[in-house]
Amino acid sequence: xxxxxxxxxxxxxxxxxxxxxxxxxxxxxxxxxxxxxxxxxxxxxxxxxxxxxxxxxxxxxxxxxxxxxxxxxxxxxxxxxxxxxxxxxxxxxxxxxxxxxxxxxxxxxxxxxxxxxxxxxxxxxxxxxxxxxxxxxxxxxxxxxxxxxxxxxxxxxxxxxxxxxxxxxxxxxxxxxxxxxxxxxxxxxxxxxxxxxxxxxxxxxxxxxxxxxxxxxxxxxxxxxxxxxxxxxxxxxxxxxxxxxxxxxxxxxxxxxxxxxxxxxxxxxxxxxxxxxxxxxxxxxxxxxxxxxxxxxxxxxxxxxxxxxxxxxxxxxxxxxxxxxxxxxxxxxxxxxxxxxxxx
Amino acid sequence: xxxxxxxxxxxxxxxxxxxxxxxxxxxxxxxxxxxxxxxxxxxxxxxxxxxxxxxxxxxxxxxxxxxxxxxxxxxxxxxxxxxxxxxxxxxxxxxxxxxxxxxxxxxxxxxxxxxxxxxxxxxxxxxxxxxxxxxxxxxxxxxxxxxxxxxxxxxxxxxxxxxxxxxxxxxxxxxxxxxxxxxxxxxxxxxxxxxxxxxxxxxxxxxxxxxxxxxxxxxxxxxxxxxxxxxxxxxxxxxxxxxxxxxxxxxxxxxxxxxxxxxxxxxxxxxxxxxxxxxxxxxxxxxxxxxxxxxxxxxxxxxxxxxxxxxxxxxxxxxxxxxxxxxxxxxxxxxxxxxxxxxx
Amino acid sequence: xxxxxxxxxxxxxxxxxxxxxxxxxxxxxxxxxxxxxxxxxxxxxxxxxxxxxxxxxxxxxxxxxxxxxxxxxxxxxxxxxxxxxxxxxxxxxxxxxxxxxxxxxxxxxxxxxxxxxxxxxxxxxxxxxxxxxxxxxxxxxxxxxxxxxxxxxxxxxxxxxxxxxxxxxxxxxxxxxxxxxxxxxxxxxxxxxxxxxxxxxxxxxxxxxxxxxxxxxxxxxxxxxxxxxxxxxxxxxxxxxxxxxxxxxxxxxxxxxxxxxxxxxxxxxxxxxxxxxxxxxxxxxxxxxxxxxxxxxxxxxxxxxxxxxxxxxxxxxxxxxxxxxxxxxxxxxxxxxxxxxxxx
Amino acid sequence: xxxxxxxxxxxxxxxxxxxxxxxxxxxxxxxxxxxxxxxxxxxxxxxxxxxxxxxxxxxxxxxxxxxxxxxxxxxxxxxxxxxxxxxxxxxxxxxxxxxxxxxxxxxxxxxxxxxxxxxxxxxxxxxxxxxxxxxxxxxxxxxxxxxxxxxxxxxxxxxxxxxxxxxxxxxxxxxxxxxxxxxxxxxxxxxxxxxxxxxxxxxxxxxxxxxxxxxxxxxxxxxxxxxxxxxxxxxxxxxxxxxxxxxxxxxxxxxxxxxxxxxxxxxxxxxxxxxxxxxxxxxxxxxxxxxxxxxxxxxxxxxxxxxxxxxxxxxxxxxxxxxxxxxxxxxxxxxxxxxxxxxx
Lengths: 344, 344, 344, 344
Fold this sequence. Notes:
Shape of chain A: globular
Strand content of chain A: 15-25%
CATH architecture of the largest domain in chain A: 3-Layer(aba) Sandwich
Oligomer: homotetramer
Number of strands of chain A: 13
Helix content of chain A: 40-55%
CATH superfamily of the largest domain in chain A: Type I PLP-dependent aspartate aminotransferase-like (Major domain)
CATH topology of the largest domain in chain A: Aspartate Aminotransferase, domain 2
Largest interface: A-B, 56 and 57 residues
Distance between the termini of chain A: 27 Å
Number of domains of chain A: 2
Order of helices and strands of chain A: EHHEHEHHEHEHEHHEEHHHHEEHEEEH
C-alpha cells in the first residue's frame, strides 16, 4: 500500500488519548459534557489561555464548530466575511448557507484576510437594507494554504473588528501546526485576547475527534450550548471529547505533536528547496504546495498518495503534501530522497 | 459517590471497542468514512439486515441522525408526524424546526404511533396549500417510555405509510434494548423491510459514540452524504465510527450487551412487582417508570441517582430507572434489596 | 351566484382607497417605502397610538407580517408560544418553522392565551439546553374564533411577558373588527402600550392589501427593514401600501368600516339568538360560529356560501359566517329572515 | 422637485390597471388567487406563451418570486449559479441564503451567463459530497446592466442545462423592456420553451405590483402554491394581482408600455451618442450607463435624480439612467438637450 501524505487525519489517536478513552469504561460520568474530565479539560484550557472568564465547549469536528459558532453569532440578515479559499466557502457543502447566512468572499493570494480587504467588503455593503450586513470575520490559522497569521496581523484585524462591531472568529482546525511553526509568534493567550471566539483542533493533531471552541465575547458565552444541541453537536458521552483534550493539554502534547508534524514537513521542504522546486506559496506549517513536473508526480504517485492541488501549466502541477503527528521519519526521508533525484 | 441509574450513557465504551479504536493509531485510513473498517462494518450490517441494496452511514449521535434524515427526506412545506413524547419534539432544542420543518404531534398513552393517529393527522391537513403536508412518520423503538413495537404493528404502519406515500423513519437510539426485550418479535431484517430508513444506536449500547443510519428507500440513498456533510455530521476520521460498529456486530455484542442491560432491568422489575409497586407503563426494556412514595424516593436518592419523571399525586412520583450494558449485577441487586424494604 | 359570508376578503378595496391609488399614477415617489405617503401614514398611525418613538412598517399580508416579526425577534433556539388554534400554527403552511423556529402550542377554549397557560409552557421547558427557550408570545385580536382581549387581560399578559423577558406580539389581521366590537375596551394606544409589536390589518378592513406593523420594543425597531427585504416583503412601489393606510386612518375609516362589518354581524346574531340557536363561542366581532341543524345548512348553502367549521354531532354542525366592511344590509337581512324560519 | 430617472418604479399604475382594480370593489371573488380574474389572466398568459400545460402564479415582487422559485426547486445541498452582478446575490439581503442555499457566482462583463461560465462552476464542484451541487441557473432578462439575451444564447443555455440536469430560471422583473428592445429576437413563447421557469415583471411595467411566475418544468408545477403560501407570498385578495396582469395582457399593454420606456431611453441614447459619450455597456433597454464628466453630473443632479453607478477615474463616473412606461417625452427631450450641451 502506498504511504499517504494526503492529509493529517489518516491515522487514529495518540496512545495517551486511547489510554484515557479506555479509562472511561469502568466509571460513571454525567452526560452531555457535564462530566469531570470535560470540566478539568476546560479549566486546563482556560489556564493555558489565561482567561478564566472564557467559556470552552467541545464538539466533534470543524464543520460543526464553524456552523454552530456562525449560526449562534449572526442575526438572519447578517453575513460572514471569509477568504475565497476559506473552508466554509468551498468544502463544507453549503453548511453556513444552510443555517441561513451569506458568505461574502474576498480573493487573496495567501488565504489570509487583511483589514483592507474587510474594509472593502464593508464599503460594498452600504445599500441598507437591500444588502446583508457583514458581522463576523472568519479566518483560519493555519489557513487552507498552510500560511499563518503573525501577532501584529491578528491584533490589527481584531482592533479593526472591534471598531466596526464585527465578531472575529478563528478556525483552528490546524492550530497546532500553526502555533508550532518556526515562523509563529502567537500564543494561545494571544488568540484568546485577539479574537472573540476560536477553536483548537484536536482531530488533526492526535485526537480521534474533537475541537475545543473557546469563547471570550460575552454575548456568545451563555447561548452556545443551545446551538450545539440544536445542530446535533452535543454528544451524550461528552467525556469522550473532554478527556481527549485533557490528554492533549496535560503534558503539552498539543504542541509537541504539532512540532513533529512540522519537523517532518521541514525534511520535505529542505529536499524540495535544495533542488530549487518552486512552491505555490512559501511553506511554514505541515502543508506544502510544491510545483512539480507532471512526470515526477506520476512517478511519486506510484509509491505515495497525495492531492493534486492546481494545474500550473501544461507540464507542471502544484501538489499538496501534508504531514501529521504520526508521520514516521523514515517514510519522510524516503520521500525526500526520491524528491532529490528530480529537478524542477 | 452515588451509583447512577439515570441513563444508559454514563459509562464509556466496551473494552473490545476501545481495543479496536486503539488499533487505528498505527495505520493509515482514508478519511470521511471511506476507510476499510467503515466499509466492512457497512457490509456486516447489510448482511445482518439481509439487504445488500441498502445504504449505511455512520454519524455521531441521535439528534444528528434525526435532523439529517428528516432534512434529507422533506421538501420545505412537508412535515413530520411524531408522538407528543417523541425525542425530536421535546428534547432536541428545536433541531427539526431549525432545518425548516414542522412536527405534527399526536398524543399517545404509550409513546407509540398507530395507523389511526396518523390517519387523523392526515385528515386534519386537508386545507391545501394553507397547511403543511405531512410526509414522514417518526417513531422510536424503544420509545421514550421504554415501550416497543410488535412486528404486526410495524408492518401495519409501514403498509399504511406506503399507501399514503409517507416515509417511515425509526429512531433506534435504544434499538438494542428493544430487540433484546423478551417481548420483542422484530429482527433487524424486519426493520429494514418495514421502514424506509432507521438507525442503530451505538452510543447507548457499548460504543463511545455512533449511530448507524440504514436507508432502504431509493430516493434517500444517494443524497445522504451531502446532508451529513452539510449538517456537520461527517467525521474526518470516519473510521472511528465504522470500527465501533464492526466491534458491536462482529461478535453479536450488539444484542448481548443489550441483553445484559435488560437482565439488570429485570432484577429491578421483579423486586418492584413483588412488592406491587405500580408502573407508569409496563416495562419491557432497560427503562422503568415505577411509581414510588416520595419518602422512598428521598431515601433512594441518598445512594442512587435517577430522574424524577412525573408527579403522580401529593405523595407519589414516577421515577425513571435506566440500566445499561455496564450496570453491574451487584449494584442492581443492592438496589433491588433496598426496594424490597418498601411498600407502595 | 350565491352571496358569500365565507370571509372578509371577498371584495376589493374601499372607493377612497382606489381613489388614492389612482393618484399615484401621475407623480413620482421614492421607492421601497421611502415615499411621502408612507411617511405620512406612519406619522398618522404614530399619532393614533400616541407614541412617536414607535416604528411603523407596511407589508403585504398577515403570513408575511407574522413570519417577519417572529424571525426578527428570535434567536435560532428560541420559540413562539401560541394557541393551538393560532393562525401561524394551523393555516400558514409551516411558515414559522421555515424560518427555523418551533411553535409551542397551548390548548384553549376560546382562542385566547392566559398567563397560566404561558406559565405552564415555561415550566415545561426547564431542561436547559435540551429544549427550546420560549421567547415570544403570539396572540391575535380578534382571535381565530372571533373572540377579543379585554384591556385587563392584555395588561396582565404584557406584565407577565415583561417579567419573564418574553416579547408580546399581537396579530391584528382582524384588529378593526375587534376594536369596533361592542365588548371592546381597548384602544390603539393601549395596544402600543401593552405589546412589543402588533399589526393593524388592512386587507380584511377596506384595503386591497396591506398590514401595518407597529413596533415599540427598542430591540426590534432598527432591524425590521432588513428582515422585510430578506423575506420578500418590501415592495418597490411601497407607496401602494402606505397610501392605503393613509386612506384608512385619515378619516377614521379604519373603525367605521369595521363597525359596519360588526353591525351586519349583529343582524345575524340577533336572528340566531331570537330562535335560540347555540354558538360554538359567544360572538363579539364579525365572525360567528352558530351551531345549526344539517338540513338547515343544506338549505342555506343553496343561496349562500360559508365555511363548515366543525361537526358537532350526527345532526348538527357549527358553521362560520363572516361579514365585512362591504356586506350589504339587504343581503344580511335576507339571510337573517331565512334563519328566522328555522329552529335549532 | 427634480425629475427622476432613478428607476422604473417611481410612478404608480397605468390608468387601465387602476380602473380594473376599482372594479373589484363591488363584487365578490374567491380568495387566494382562485378568483375569476386570476384564472382569466393565467389563461391569457398561457395563450401568449402557447403552452396550456404551463402553470402561472402571481406574487407581489421580484425578491419574493426569486426566493420562492429557488427554495422550491432545490434540495438543501443544492446551489444556484448566478452572475456576480445578479440581483439575488447583491441586492436582496441574503434572501436566497435565508432559505438555506448557496449562490455560486460568476464574474461577467455584461451581466449575462454563458455555457462556458456555467461549465466552469460545475467543474469546480467535483469534490462530492464536500461541496454543494449546482442545480439551478439564475439569469435575468434584461440583466442588471440592461443587456439582453438573444434567442440562440437562451437556446444554448437551456440545452446545456438540460444536458446537465440543471433548472434554468429567468428573472423577468424587466422582461417588458427586454422584449421590446430593438435588439430583441425572443418571444414569450421562446421563454416558455427555453426555460424551466421564468417570471413576467408587472411592477416595473405599468402595474402597481405583481410578477407572474410561469412554470413549465413538471417537477415544479404542483408544489409552488405551498411555497408561495409558506413564504408569505399568497395574498388573501389574489384578484388584486391577477386583474393587473389581465390589464397588461388583454390589450398588449405589456409590450406597448415597455416600448414607450425604450423609446424614451432611445432619445437619451441618441443625445449621448451624438456627443460621443462612452457607455459602460452598450444600451439596448430602458437602462443606460453613460460615462460622464463629474462636473456634468453635478450640473445634471441639480435638475434630475439618478444613480451614480461606478467611479471610472478621477474625473469621470458612470451613472444609471432609467426610463419607464410613464416617463414623459418632454422631460426626456429636456434632459437630452441638456446632455447635448456637454462633451465627454
